[in-house]
Every structure is written in C-alpha cells, then in structure tokens.
Specification:
With 279 residues, the chain is α+β, with helices and mostly antiparallel strands. The chain has twelve helices and 13 strands.
C-alpha cells in the first residue's frame, strides 16, 4: 500500500493514517471549489423588477438613470477590496479574490460601470464610512457611504432569502418605488426557487438612504455607533441574481466510485438547500 501511495505522489507522515483512511465509510466534502469549479458567472436575474437572461447592457434596462447608477455603485463598492477582475489577452475575465464577488464585478462592467473608478472615487475621499462584513452567520455584507451631496447611502447584498426579508420597498419596471407587499414578495420567492432549482447561487441586492440629524458634529462617529439592525433594515430591493458554478467534470464518476466502495459522500455548504440538492 505504501508503494501505491508513493506512485500516486502522496506524502504519508504516518502509516497508520493509510489504515484509517482505508476504513472510512463517510466523506464530508465542501461544495464550492471542491465539488464545483469555483468559476462563478451571473447568468440571469431580476434587475429593477425585470427578468433578464443573460445580463443585458445598461441601455436595455428600464428605470431611471439615478436608479441604474445606484445599482452599479452598489455592485462596485459593496465588495471586498481584495476582489478584483481584469481582462486577459484572450478577452476573458481573470478573477482575483472572492469568486462570487468577482462575478458581481463582471456584472457591474456589463452594465456599463467601471468598478475601479467607482471604488477609487469613494475610497480616495474616505467616503466609505462603515462596512459590515460577510459571515456564515449573517450571510450578507453592507457598506455605508457618504454621497457627494452629503447624504448617507446603505448598500447591502447577500443570500437572497435573508436580504429579501430586510426589504420593505421594490423598484417596479416603470421605475416607481412601491411597497414590497406579500404578492410581490411571493413573486420574488418564486424566482429564487426557480434559480436555486437550477443549481444557481442566489443573491439579493438592496439599498436605502439613511437619515441623520443635521446637527451631528461628526458623521463618521454617528454611523459607527449605529446598531447593525438600524442600518440593515427598510431596504429597497434593486436586484436578484442567479450565479452559476459548474460541477467539476471528474466529480460524478468519483462519487460513483465512492458509492461502489460503500463510502457515503456528504456535501457541506452554506448555500440555499435547493441549490445544494441540484448539485
């Protein structure tokens, strides 16, 4: 067995580990990047209440110029600075950093935004006042920025079923801001189920304008003292997107081999249950 392990170029520190592995009856595997390729692409979505597939350019979307600008700004600024994309010589996008966020940046560019310019414009003026980072518990990320007219804008993105519950309004196809009533909420939930049943990861993107007392002496300190729940509430729903991450070509046969050997493969993921079932 040691010889076979050597031929497979496996480094074994303890021989007993081989015996332990040989007796395994269960394998718990991460999904993203292990069972799947971790090559994310936004393939379809509901942008400003318009069902689109694939993601169109800006001119094909309805809505006001201001609403489109806010959507693009949220895609660019409410991502980690370490997430970065650039065009390769072959004309395809190279991803650096978080692959899910990179797919959002590609969507930003597809809609006519320049994520680097937007980031530099806000960050260089130190106008990103606060970031609520993503975690497996929160399943969302939020940025609070100071606009050029000295207003506070909140951008939130995250797991669709989580963020949609934080929204109270939605932008209609005609550009109107309407209350997100039960009927409209159910419509979006049906879209979420449709996307997840195809194995797509779903994200919702929302925003709000945050009021503050004009007599506040230091706006940054004011924002820092706000509770997360006071920031991430009363959002206006801008977009729902479905992100495709293909299964690795070798995975189905590998899982079948495990089954034949009596080994049960379990998938561990924080994704929506329907997305996990499809994979």
């Amino acid at each position: 067995s040691m010889t076979r392990m050597m031929k497979g170029q496996n480094l074994v520190r303890k021989l007993a580990a081989c015996e332990t592995m040989g007796g395994a009856t269960n394998i718990c595997s991460d999904k993203t990047g292990t069972l799947t390729e971790n090559r994310m692409t936004v393939t379809e979505g509901v942008l400003l209440s318009q069902l689109v597939k694939p993601i169109p350019n800006r001119s094909e979307l309805k809505g006001t110029e201001e609403q489109l600008d806010v959507l693009i700004e949220g895609l660019a600024i409410n991502t980690q600075d370490a997430s970065f994309i650039q065009l390769s010589e072959q004309g395809t996008w190279d991803y650096k950093g978080n692959k899910t966020e990179c797919s959002i940046l590609v969507m930003c560019e597809s809609l006519g935004g320049k994520f680097i310019d937007i980031r530099e414009k806000i960050v260089s003026k130190n106008n990103r006042l606060r970031s609520l980072t993503f975690s497996s518990d929160r399943k969302r990320m939020t940025s609070v920025i100071l606009t050029e007219d000295n207003r506070l804008r909140v951008h939130t993105k995250g797991a669709a079923e989580i963020v949609i519950e934080l929204c109270k309004d939605v932008i209609s196809e005609t550009g109107e801001v309407l209350p997100l009533k039960d009927e409209m909420r159910e419509k979006f939930l049906r879209h979420i189920n449709s996307f997840t049943s195809q194995g797509l990861r779903t994200l919702c993107i929302g925003y709000r304008m945050l009021d503050y007392p004009q007599e506040v002496p230091n706006i940054r300190e004011y924002v820092d003292k706000l509770a997360d729940t006071d920031i991430e509430t009363g959002l206006t729903l801008l977009a729902l997107v479905g992100i495709k991450d293909p299964v690795r070509a070798a995975v189905p046969s590998a899982v079948q081999q495990c089954k034949k050997a009596g080994i049960f493969v379990r998938m561990v993921t924080g994704d929506n249950i329907e997305t996990a079932k499809h994979i």
